[in-house]
Write a structure and sequence with these properties.
Rossmann fold, 4 domains, seven-stranded mixed β-sheet, globular
Length: 650
């Protein structure tokens, strides 16, 4: 099957400095040629299934159940349409998924949903708030669950598999019970939007799956466990350190825990990444956030002769610097797999943690973060930092009537108690030695002194009002693609042809990347179709310039740049507009609760997909691109300059 040119990479690509780079393979790779007779049978089945689905969408009284049918259509359709049948053995699986989907549709039409009461291996799906796509997850439901009784939930993050299409994931989720089958607990097998180590939209996948699972099963949220191996072990370290307050236990196996050492970034012969890329490692590096493991039970595993033992070793080292120790179980003379005796030992430690469960309101909480995106643990939530991407700390201890808090690099925070057993909310807070009323649990700094109240209210009363970097609006560019976004396509004439051509090419590449890497179809609308409702509900990713894109023209005087046909002025740089273009993320001036993004999709490109530890943000809040260097597998052109806005988006 001939692939669209957009999905193929040129044999010659370029680095940011214009140097030639080797050809980069496509991930997922091209599939096999499906025999004509099988193709015809599958196409006929998809046509029938499509008609059934169309009718069901119009008539069902259970629209929330549609994803559990639609996922089988997506599985079969995408396998054929995008050349993702990787083995002849998958051809009958495509046909099987069509029939399964049609059968589920018939059940739903009859107001029957057997997947909601099934035990054993069950495939489900939800509709993502990010892009409206249906995303699968697998469940292992034990027999004999007592009605209404809360049940522990174990998440499993899968290892790297460059051919793990929806077809392959669903097939495996219906046949394989996985490494661990805990008694009396549900296991959720996360798809994580394919093969990105559960980063970005793959990270959000866990939370959207959890939200969906809770609609159907009585989950005990004090007994959540995160597990994974290899790439999934890396994801487990990430969830354990970045969301430690969620877990009764975390059990990572192998994987990686940071970028620089695992990926040997500074090895001889490698070009060192630019400074901003190194800063952005702090988003997903787990080592620098090891202090958060004090808030959960961690059980690490490595094979003794597995190269990925490096992950647990380096995490142990960083945790010990924070005064934290956790068991590191090592499979004797074991390569990249679990030793059976080690699995028994892991289960004993995890079961012991589950016996008591996570404390609803722990007396002590420690939070370390480098970004407001990862600023919550138990009842402590960071709202704003004094300087993003530097270490921020909150240590809080609840003594009943008072909360004692010490902070570092924190501008505001929130203490939110979910109390039980008649316990009372604290009446006072001691913050860095200052005695304050507890109030609503909101605290912010003003001229170096702590005050009770919300810093955002203070900022918005200023004239003109100041934007603030907060958990939902802090950059960098990639953050825009972790909540709902819409691509806004230009319909006008560009200021310069080179910019127009480049922007069109980058938009097409971003659309293809989103489908390949994050397994969704980006929502694309014309600039004339943007309504107030759309701008309110979504981050707008505007392509083009202030002439070609009517929405950008509408907000041009409120953006942090000056741009005409002759010059582009931005962040102290003044460059020729004929050969340069801006990339940036900024609060949308017409809806500052959402982002406006100029000329960028997710910033890691094809080269980063070759190693999951390299799938990190490549651009910060803004960049200026010289278009005379062609886009390549690492950069969208030559990056002339790039950097971050301050904590008030200036």
């Amino acid at each position: 099957m001939k692939l669209p040119a957009l999905l193929l990479l040129s044999a010659i690509a370029f680095t940011a400095n214009g140097q030639q780079a080797p050809e980069i393979k496509r991930i997922p790779p091209p599939g096999i040629e499906v025999p004509a007779a099988d193709r015809a049978e599958i196409e006929a089945g998809l046509k029938e299934f499509g008609t059934v689905l169309s009718n069901l969408r119009r008539t069902t009284s259970h629209p929330n159940e549609l994803p559990n049918v639609e996922i089988f259509f997506k599985s079969a359709d995408w396998a054929l349409r995008y050349n993702e049948v990787f083995d002849a053995k998958q051809i009958p699986i495509v046909k099987e998924h069509i029939q399964q989907g049609i059968a589920r549709a018939a059940s739903l039409k009859a107001n029957k949903m057997p997947w909601n009461t099934a035990t054993g291996l069950v495939v489900r799906a939800y509709r993502s708030k990010i892009d409206g796509s249906v995303q699968p997850y697998g469940l292992l439901i034990p027999e004999g669950l007592k009605p209404g009784a809360k049940v522990p939930l174990h998440f499993w993050c899968h290892g790297r598999n460059e051919k793990l299409s929806e077809l392959a994931f669903i097939d495996g989720s219906q046949k394989n019970k996985g490494e661990f089958t805990p008694d009396g607990a549900i296991v959720c097998f996360l798809y994580g939007r394919f093969c990105n180590a559960n980063k970005f939209a793959g990270e959000v996948d866990l939370f959207e799956a959890l939200e969906d699972i809770k609609k159907y099963y009585p989950i005990d949220e004090q007994r959540l466990v995160i597990r994974g191996f290899s790439m999934g072990g890396a994801a487990c370290w990430q969830f354990a350190t970045h969301h430690a307050g969620m877990w009764a236990a975390a059990a990572p196996g192998a994987g990686f825990a940071e970028t620089a050492e695992f990926f040997k970034v500074f090895a001889e012969g490698k070009e060192a990444p630019p400074w901003w890329e190194q800063v952005l490692w702090r988003w997903y590096d787990c080592t620098t956030m090891a202090a958060n493991l004090s808030n959960t039970t961690t059980v690490a595993y490595s094979g003794e002769i597995d190269g990925q033992k490096q992950a647990a070793d380096i995490m142990t080292s960083y945790a010990e610097k924070e005064g934290i120790k956790f068991p590191h179980i090592i499979g004797p003379q074991t390569p990249h797999k679990y030793h059976p005796d080690s699995k028994v030992e892991i289960n004993k430690l995890v079961d012991a943690a589950l016996a008591n469960g996570r404390e609803l309101v722990p007396k002590k909480v420690q939070l370390v973060t480098y970004t407001p995106m990862c600023g919550k643990s138990a009842w402590v939530e960071l709202a704003q930092m004094e300087k993003q991407w530097e270490r921020a700390e909150i240590k809080a201890e609840w003594t009943g009537t008072n909360v004692a808090v010490t902070t570092k690099n924190v501008a505001s925070f929130f203490l939110q108690f979910r109390l039980a057993n008649g316990e009372a909310t604290p009446s006072s807070a001691d913050v860095d030695g200052q005695k304050l009323p507890f109030g609503m649990g909101l605290f912010h700094k003003d001229d170096g002194k702590w005050k009770e109240g919300d810093i955002l209210e203070t900022l918005t009363t200023k004239s003109p009002p100041l934007y603030a970097k907060a958990p939902r609006l802090c950059g960098p560019i990639d953050h825009a693609f972790m909540s709902r976004f819409v691509f806004v396509r230009p319909t006008g004439k560009p200021l310069n042809d080179a910019v127009g051509t480049w922007s069109k090419s980058e938009m097409d590449r971003a659309i293809a990347q989103w489908r390949q890497v994050f397994r969704g179809e980006a929502i694309v609308i014309d600039d004339t179709a943007v309504t107030d409702v759309i701008a309110k509900d979504a981050n707008l990713v505007a392509w083009g310039d202030l002439s070609s894109n009517k929405y950008l023209a509408k907000i041009a005087d409120k953006l942090p740049l000056k741009w005409n046909s002759q010059t582009l002025e931005m962040r102290g740089q003044k460059v020729d507009a004929a050969h340069h273009a801006p990339i940036l993320i900024y609060p949308n001036p017409l809806n500052p609760a959402r982002y406006i993004v100029l000329n960028s999709g997710p910033t890691f490109r094809e080269a980063a997909a070759l190693n999951n530890s390299d799938q990190t943000p490549k651009l910060p809040d803004w960049a200026i691109v010289d278009l005379r260097t062609p886009p390549g597998p690492k950069w969208p052109g030559q990056i002339v300059d790039a950097g971050f806005f301050d904590e008030n988006w200036r």
